């Protein structure tokens, strides 16, 4: 049975001019692209098969990533369904000259495991053999629940 740790994926990207807006900061679409790739790798490592993006929750951009900074994108599977894998993605901005990091963005993705014909296939159960993995899983589940509730509350206020 694969573990949460088996799915952990980290990738880094140096923000170059072609990925920036006119303020010299990362384009939102660039960050979303990185997040989707990192989450896809995480889900495939977990499931041991091809996985496709089914959905992405609301994304919170909390700090810009400036030209020349390094984007550190981290993802891990924290829950599963019959054919789905829930993946938490965090992005940090790092100044490589002084090794300082700050949170930049985060979201939750849902992937579907597919077979060689592109049809949904069963996913293995998630195992969290350590207290640290259990804590990551529990924190991700609680954070997603809270975020979804916030969105529902905002939408309810629009009626």
From TrEMBL:
GO terms for biological process: acyl-CoA metabolic process; fatty acid catabolic process. This is Thioesterase domain protein. GO terms for molecular function: long-chain fatty acyl-CoA hydrolase activity. It comes from Natronomonas pharaonis (strain ATCC 35678 / DSM 2160 / CIP 103997 / JCM 8858 / NBRC 14720 / NCIMB 2260 / Gabara) (Halobacterium pharaonis). InterPro entries: Cytosol_ACT (IPR040170), HOTDOG_ACOT (IPR033120), HotDog_dom_sf (IPR029069), Thioestr_dom (IPR006683). Transmembrane segments: none annotated. Pfam families: 4HBT. One of its GO terms (cellular component) is cytosol. Residues 5-117 form the HotDog ACOT-type domain. SUPFAM superfamilies: Thioesterase/thiol ester dehydrase-isomerase (SSF54637). Keywords: Hydrolase.
């Amino acid at each position: 049975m694969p573990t949460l740790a088996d799915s952990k994926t980290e990738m880094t990207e140096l923000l170059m001019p072609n990925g920036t807006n006119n303020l010299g900061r990362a384009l939102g679409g660039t960050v979303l692209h990185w997040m989707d790739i990192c989450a896809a790798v995480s889900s495939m490592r977990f499931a041991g098969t091809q996985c496709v993006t089914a959905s992405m929750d609301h994304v919170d951009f909390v700090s810009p990533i400036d030209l020349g900074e390094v984007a550190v994108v981290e993802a891990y599977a924290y829950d599963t369904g019959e054919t789905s894998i829930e993946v938490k993605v965090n992005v940090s901005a790092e100044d490589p000259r002084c090794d300082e990091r700050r949170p930049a963005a985060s979201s939750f993705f849902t992937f579907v495991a597919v077979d060689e014909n592109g049809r949904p296939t069963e996913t293995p159960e998630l195992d969290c053999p350590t207290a640290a993995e259990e804590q990551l899983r529990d924190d991700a589940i609680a954070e997603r629940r809270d975020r979804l509730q916030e969105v529902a509350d905002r939408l309810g206020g629009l009626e």
